[in-house]
Amino acid sequence: MRIFTPKSNIMEIKSLINTSYDDLFEAFEQAFADYEVQLNKTELRKMMKRRGCDPKLSFAAFDADRIVSFTCNGIGNFNGTLTAYDTGTGTLKDYRGQGLATKVFEESIPDLKAAGIKEYLLEVLQHNTGAVSLYRNIGFEVTREFYYFRATTGQIKNVVKRTDFHHIKEIDINNHPVIPTFWDFKPSWQNSIESINRSPEDFLNIGFFVEGNLMGYGVFEPASGDVTQLAVDKRYRRRGIGSLLLQKMLEANEGTSVKIINTDTSCDSVTDFLKAKDIEPTGKQFEMIKLL
């Protein structure tokens, strides 16, 4: 617990371990009221679970009993390193310009280190130049650049040339150690197998088999339209397997659009595949890491 005085207000920074979900959602809703995409209570809870949010190691600035600035941290292993991940950082409009987000972050570092966390990971929209500059100034370095894609199902051009749907079946991605060999880049935090395993009930996992061998697979979240993972054995590409898997995901979609978040900009194979489906990039993000 830390007490400090920004401008004329006396505030307290503390963990969210004893904060109710309703209070956190209210702060989240107010902090992101001017964002294009809004999350309801159920969607936010699912996002927090998938990204590994740990209330004990998440922190906020309180004005009296009200959350006015917060950072929710996911905790997990990222490429073999115990890592904290910025699941969501926000400040209420009337409290912006006081450096609260930076103060909350700085005050959280001792607790994160004490918990054995070795690095802090986040993603930030590249056009949010203010945030990018802030993160650079407190020691974050860019590790990768990501595209994010979004398209309505009606605009997607997905010509499926093969019809052997009988080769597709649901799978447990944990039972197929060959899967990482299909990747052209390692998935981001929220698309990692560890994140998928936090909420397995939310995902459709399908695989394409040839003579009993997995040759391609997809992981899809029907409720959100999120194509979480999609990859094909390098030896079997350009044979329509990716298109077939995408078609099955589109059929399971519960909404009217799909999104593909955090594809590595250096990975032409994924970018070209999506563009061929008329799924164009809608923006870029930086992945940034600070060693603790």
Features:
about 290 residues; alpha+beta; 9-stranded mixed sheet; 4-stranded antiparallel sheet; 13 strands
Short description:
This protein is of the alpha+beta class and 292 residues long.
Write up this protein.
The protein is an alpha+beta fold and 292 residues long. Helices cover 25% and strands 35% of the residues. The two termini are 20 Å apart. The model has no long low-confidence stretch (mean pLDDT 93).
User: How many beta-strand segments?
Assistant: 13
Stretches where pLDDT is under 50 for at least 5 consecutive residues are none
Task: Please write the string of helix (H) and strand (E) elements.
Answer: EEHHEEEHEHEEHEEEHEHE
- How many H/I helical runs? 7
N-C termini distance: 20 Å
| Structural class by SSE content | alpha+beta
Q: Give the overall average pLDDT.
A: 93
Taken from the alpha-carbon principal axes, the silhouette is elongated
* Major β-sheet strand ordering: 1-2-3-4-5-6-13-7-12
Q: Approximately how much helix is present in the residues?
A: 10-25%
Rg (C-alpha, Å): 20 Å
Largest sheet: number of strands, sense, barrel closure: 9 strands, mixed
Strand content: 25-35%
SSE blueprint and pairings:
Layout: E1 2-4, E2 11-15, H1 21-31, H2 41-50, E3 59-63, E4 66-78, E5 81-91, H3 100-114, E6 119-125, H4 129-137, E7 141-152, E8 168-170, H5 193-198, E9 204-210, E10 213-221, E11 226-232, H6 241-252, E12 257-264, H7 268-276, E13 281-291
Parallel strand pairs: 5-6
Antiparallel strand pairs: 1-2, 2-3, 3-4, 4-5, 6-13, 7-12, 7-13, 8-9, 9-10, 10-11
